[in-house]
Design brief:
Layout (H helix, E strand, L loop, with lengths): L5 H13 L6 H12 L4 E2 H8 L7 H13 L3 E5 L5 E5 L10 E6 L5 E8 L18 E4 L7 H4 L1
Parallel strand pairs: 4-6
Antiparallel strand pairs: 1-3, 2-3, 4-5
Helix pairs in contact: 1-2, 2-3, 2-4, 3-4
């Protein structure tokens, strides 16, 4: 078993089973890594964490992340650095694309702001149809704010 809590592996397995698709060790491991993460992770961070105890190659991680995203078990967040970051959607899709994100301009950390809902209905020109709304608040996280500004 990987350093990720066994209960998270069980939760990940249950979520994958609910899709009706084949349950694989790789899907469970990658989803468990996302469930354990307090913030959105890059592909490389996920690969490193998933490979602490098992061998999952880079291409398999990409495929699993796409599979999880397509089944709404995870979502991906576009970064200014052109690197996708991934976060677990959780049970029953508890996190959807309708919430905002915070990106630290100092360290690059991206977290979900679940209490901040992005507008689902935006008035668009006739004939246009939105598919996704991405709201990102940018600033400095608590670790990157200069000490004199924290007080």
């Amino acid at each position: 078993m990987s350093p990720v809590e066994p209960t998270l592996h069980h939760r990940a397995e249950t979520l994958v089973e609910r899709t009706g698709a084949r349950v694989t060790r790789q899907r469970i491991e990658v989803l468990a890594v996302l469930l354990a993460a307090p913030r959105a992770l890059t592909h490389h961070e996920i690969e490193r964490r998933a490979n602490r105890s098992r061998e999952i190659d880079r291409v398999t991680v990409y495929r699993v992340l796409e599979w999880l995203t397509c089944r709404n078990l995870a979502h991906k967040i576009a970064g200014d650095d052109r690197v996708w970051r991934f976060n677990a959607a959780g049970d029953e899709g508890e996190r959807s694309h309708s919430h905002a994100h915070f990106k630290c301009n100092g360290c690059g950390e991206v977290i979900c702001l679940d209490e901040v809902r992005a507008a689902r209905r935006i008035r668009l020109p006739r004939g246009y149809h939105s598919q996704e709304v991405d709201l990102t608040v940018k600033g400095l996280c608590v670790d990157c704010v200069p000490v004199r500004k924290r007080a």
